[in-house]
Amino acid sequence: MDTGFIHIYYGNGKGKTTAAVGLAVRCAGRGGQVWFAQFLKAGNTGELTIFSRIPEITVWRAGGPSKFTSQMTAAERLQTAARQNRLWRRLLHHCHEAPPDLLVLDELLVAMSLGFIPEKEIIRFFHTKPPQTEIVLTGHTPSRELLAAADYISQITAVKHPFTRGIPARIGIEK
Hints:
alpha/beta, six-stranded parallel sheet, 6 helices, 6 strands, 38% helix
């Protein structure tokens, strides 16, 4: 790729990470190097299984919390924030040394909204990123400034979802 663009997949609907996974597989399928970074996620999801079989995709994880941040003590919240911030710093450092063709920052918008990653650092990264690197951010609520900096914006809206009927996430579909 000559020019790397910025994508934002956001909203309250299912499919943000799924869309990012699809783009990662497409890029890797064409020989591109992909870094798929997951913020605030724990557990072994289906995409991790397939990514382990695709040498062009490198997964970066901070380790997710064991409970919702609203249920955390102040110390647990600080620990979680530190883990997310360490991942962010590692990505920034390595991205300039050996830039990938595609960098997916899954749930970075959530980490930002919780105050774990400063928005101004994300904006600064947009301006200093390797020019050929394509960037994807997923999450719930991007700021106006982030939206203004993006080249692609996809809003994923929940119209109907089995979760509202009490059906838990299913292996292979939601996780």
